[in-house]
Amino acid sequence: MNFHLVSLGVSMLRRDWRAGEWRILLLALLLATGSISTVGLFSDRVKQALQQESHALLGADLRVTSVRPVSPDYREEAIRLGLRVSATANFPSMLSTDSHNLLGEILAIDKGYPLRGALRISDHSNDTDTLHDDGKIANTIPERGTIWADERLFRRLDVKLGQSIQVGNLKMRLSERVVKDVDQALSFTSIAPRIQINMADLPATGLVQEGSRITYRLLVAGNAQAVAKFRQWAEPRLQNGEKLEDVRDARPEIRQSLERADHFLGLAALMTYVLAGIAMALAARQFISRHLDACAVMRCLGATQNQVMGLFLYQFILLGLAGILLGCLIGWAVQAILVASVQSLQAANLPSPGLMPVIQAGLSGMTLLMGFTFLPLWQLKSVTPLRVIRRELGPPNRNTGLMYAIGGSVLIGLFVWQAGSIKLGLTVLAGLGGGMTLFGLIAWFSLRLLSRLPMSNRHLFTNLARHGKANAIQIVALSIGGMSLLLLTLVRSELMQNWIERLPPDAPNRFIVNVQPEQRVAVQQFFIRQGLPQPSLSPMVRGRLIAINGRPVKGDDYPDSRARALAERETNLSWSADVPAGNRVVQGSWWHSATGGVNEHEISMEEGIATTLGIKLGDTLAYDIAGDEFQGKVTSLRKLRWDSMQVNFFVMTAPGLLDNYPASYISSFYLPRDKLRSGDALLKAFPNLLVIDTEAIIRQVRHIMDQIAQTLGAVFMFTLLSGLAVLYAALLATRDERVLQAAILRTLGADSRYLHRQQLIEFALLGTLSGLLAAAGAAGLGWILARNVLEIHFSAPATLWLSGLIGGMAIVMLAGWLVMRKIVKLPPLIILNT
Amino acid sequence: MAFIVQAINLGKQVSSGGQPLHILHDVNFNVEAHESLAILGASGSGKSTLLGLLAGLDVPTQGTVMLDGNDLFQFDEDQRARLRGRLAGFVFQSFQLLPALSALENVMLPLELQGQDHAREQAAEVLEKVGLAHRLTHLPKHLSGGEQQRVALARAFVSRPKILFADEPTGNLDAATGTQVIKLMMEMNRTQGTTLILVTHDEALANQCDRQLRLLGGKLVQD
């Protein structure tokens, strides 16, 4: 490194700074790093908060589930990482009183259970009046020798609190009624009532024997980073019969909502990258064109090409470092303010955000700066010194294409990094790139077209068309800025509204499982009698996947623990003539023949499970259903809207194919708070039914939506600022040229009124075109977000177009007037001389 | 006697609309150290091109220039720049001060580029000589044309060049100011013993030089 050059770079930076040359570039840089770090830090914490809350549905942040006692290594490692741990063991067993016997599920729990969320218990007996007291939070676990049980056990064994129940070799006293279980909703298969006992009692029951079907779980919870570390450590150590589960693995509804949150916040960040990049490119372009003369003079004064280049490079690096540091500080501060201002985030008591988003923002800012300025610097380097006597010699422009190519690839790289997926990053970028090119072409053609119209003011348009390329670029920049504004305001609220409406207040909050075929009519009549809407019952047959294309399926074939679990356990198969609501066929097509195919059985599969199990369209699957083999061919793949809270099936067939297999029926319905007794009456009338309360899940899904709707405003605020920076940079970019043109016109006799009018008409036209394109862009982006991220319907409101048109015109005219106002008043000679 | 500048068969040809266009044709002359030379000619006669070639700012299509014994066009662009830094000073019609730099900083720049110490003191001293001691911290836009050109003179002389190239130095100034600037330039030229090569279309100014060259249509018509 050349220290003399560095110190000269420092003084030049200081001098140029004083003259205001760096301001717009620094502003762009601050916005880039500030917004990237804010969005990164903030969305990171929002995601953490949402996840942490969701974990209450699981009782833990992460569980190690095993068919054998969980190896103590896991517990030791979790403790070493500072995590809280607890353990459970559950299995089916007979429970008996003197008069009744019942198959129940025993859950032995250890101190600290649950690590997330809470059990609610009540010491009131199960008379109808107190059935819906909310109970109190259980701060302990059952004392030794006692059991806690849920409502179903009380009803089916006909017992009261204080009575004894035989559990294996132990006679245990029923001490509390469980009002709200932690992970009750997790398993549709556990139709049996559940009791909780103290883990220490487990050996004495004598139920732990060779061949017992016991599921052991180690629960861990704590700092998100430590949990992630634990997961990383544990994953490669998993043995056969062991798996890791977090709420995403266990609850598809929550997983999908969190993923949507992720995507939405991620897209906001991507948008910021693009805007920051554009602002940076515009600022750099302006900077370079203003420094051509200085470079030529320095070359005259004996500076070598490398000196000129080095001088600017050092300045850029210094500016970059300062900008990044400041930007990251701003990002950190804004993020802290945001977290403090959103109450639920405050309450979540989040661990401080990691440094990663800051590092990412810093690197991105520097990369953007260098990506968009390095080649312009290269151009400065090769400015001919002859420019000092021959002004008309511009920068060598053979490299502009290459410059944008390099800047573009930098942006692509950052995009893919930020998006975390090459496909998503490239899709969004291709869309944006395509859109921008299209905008540019439309702008260019429109200007040309206008200049040919037979109108008295045609010369104004001719002037715009003459600088067609530059003006088209300006229009693209203006419309991208405007697009972000419209997206922030109109489209965002419309999208959020539609999204939240998709989960209406009467979204199903109960599932009924195990309705027998002969009970169907009676159950439906029961609903009518209770004044509840008649539920639609979906058939369900349980089967296990045994072969794909004739190749037997074994859990061991899948390294992934989720896939292994899916391969090993039974699946619910259902049938339907039509595509169920909330399902969308994404590959193949729904039943070719109404009856399900004369030649071949057709199967429709959920996309995600098909991917996990490596099943493709056209594969032949064999299921073992109650000892019989059922074969079919996959003819369609479906995408499910899990967060619609409707009954969903991974595997479906056409009607008629599964008629000979034992089926039960399942449904979801909305139970209003004032009809809670109907729920109890249902269970009294049909004791074999299992009613699962999904209220907590709905609440969580709704909460995630609310949080995103709320926080998105904050995240987009930066996008908005970046948009404004782009607007400003775009106007500044042509300022010098406009100034010169105004001076020449003044010299030729134009008065300031004429100049004002001419400028304003030009700005109005630019604004109108940009505004309309911005509205089109916002509508397009809104549509893409609605379709691909939120999976809702979206049509652009009429106000969008109107706001684009009027807003575009007004803002550009106003900004243009502000930028040009002094210029038209200056004596032309001053302008021409400088 | 050794010549400090020699133009040897110097020519420049560009292609314009597919046709070759001779801007300079076979120019030969020598300049002695401490001599002052005016290059005269009408607009488009090629005088600015000639100056650019003599200073190594542009590359000829034919012939070469010897500068203080160095064959300019045997060098690459960077070597020429270093040679310029060591040997030459420049004054331009449009002053070419860096707008972001104060008067003092503009004058310091050539010294800073060469990595010299005490740039500030040297620059202040020269600015005092051109009568701008009270204007050190002003930005060019706050200086009059005459003052700007005096800053440019200070910048040209601060590195004690052997040769001063001046391109229409009074072109942007009124007559009275122009006369003052020329007087100053000639005086500094004498006291520093610099060789002056001046391009102008002003006969009176040219007559103050030791020798005049006249260009017509890219050819030397009078030596």
What is the compact description of this entry?
Chain A has 834 residues and is of the alpha+beta class. Chain A is 54% helix and 16% strand. Chain A has 24 helices and 22 strands.
Molecular structure report:
- The complex is a heterodimer of chains A (834) and B (223).
- A six-stranded mixed beta barrel of chain A has the order 2-3-9-6-8-7. A six-stranded mixed beta barrel of chain A has the order 13-15-20-17-19-18.
- In chain A, helix 9 (305-341) runs antiparallel to helix 11 and helix 22 (752-790) packs antiparallel against helix 23.
- The radius of gyration of chain A is 34 Å and the shape is elongated.
- With 834 residues, chain A is an alpha+beta fold.
- In chain A, strand 2 and strand 3 (101-109) form a beta hairpin.
- The model of chain A is unreliable at 185-189 (pLDDT under 50).
- Chain A contains 24 helices and 22 strands.
- Chain B is built from seven helices and ten strands.
- In chain B, the strands form two sheets. Chain B has a six-stranded mixed β-sheet. Chain B has a four-stranded antiparallel β-sheet with strand order 2-1-4-5, with helices on one face.
Individual helix count of chain A: 24
Question: Helical proportion of chain B?
Answer: 25-40%
Gross morphology of chain A is elongated
Structural class of chain B: alpha/beta
Mean pLDDT figure of chain B: 88
- Structural class of chain A comes to alpha+beta
Rg over alpha carbons of chain A: 34 Å
The counted number of beta strands of chain B is 10
Mean pLDDT over the residues of chain A: 79
Terminal CA distance of chain B reads 18 Å
Keywords:
heterodimer, A: alpha+beta, 6-stranded mixed beta barrel, B: 223 residues, 4-stranded antiparallel beta sheet, 7 helices
SSE blueprint:
The complex is a heterodimer of chains A (834) and B (223).
Chain A: H1 3-18, H2 23-54, E1 62-66, H3 72-80, E2 84-96, E3 101-109, E4 120-122, E5 136-137, E6 146-150, H4 151-157, E7 164-167, E8 170-180, E9 194-198, H5 202-205, E10 215-221, H6 224-234, E11 242-245, H7 247-250, H8 252-300, H9 305-341, H10 343-347, H11 356-381, H12 400-419, H13 422-452, H14 458-466, H15 468-502, E12 510-515, H16 520-529, E13 538-548, E14 551-552, H17 561-568, E15 571-575, E16 583-588, E17 602-606, H18 607-613, E18 620-625, E19 628-640, E20 651-653, E21 664-669, H19 676-685, E22 690-693, H20 695-733, H21 735-747, H22 752-790, H23 798-820, H24 828-833
Helix pairs in contact in A: 1-9, 2-8, 2-9, 2-11, 2-20, 8-11, 8-12, 8-15, 8-20, 9-11, 11-12, 12-13, 13-14, 13-15, 13-22, 15-20, 15-22, 15-23, 20-23, 22-23
Chain B: E1 3-16, E2 19-32, E3 36-41, H1 47-54, E4 62-67, E5 70-71, H2 77-87, E6 88-91, H3 103-113, H4 119-129, H5 145-158, E7 163-167, H6 175-192, E8 195-200, H7 203-207, E9 211-216, E10 219-222
Parallel strand pairs in B: 3-8, 3-9, 6-7, 7-8
Antiparallel strand pairs in B: 1-2, 1-4, 4-5, 9-10
Helix pairs in contact in B: 3-4, 3-5, 4-5, 5-6
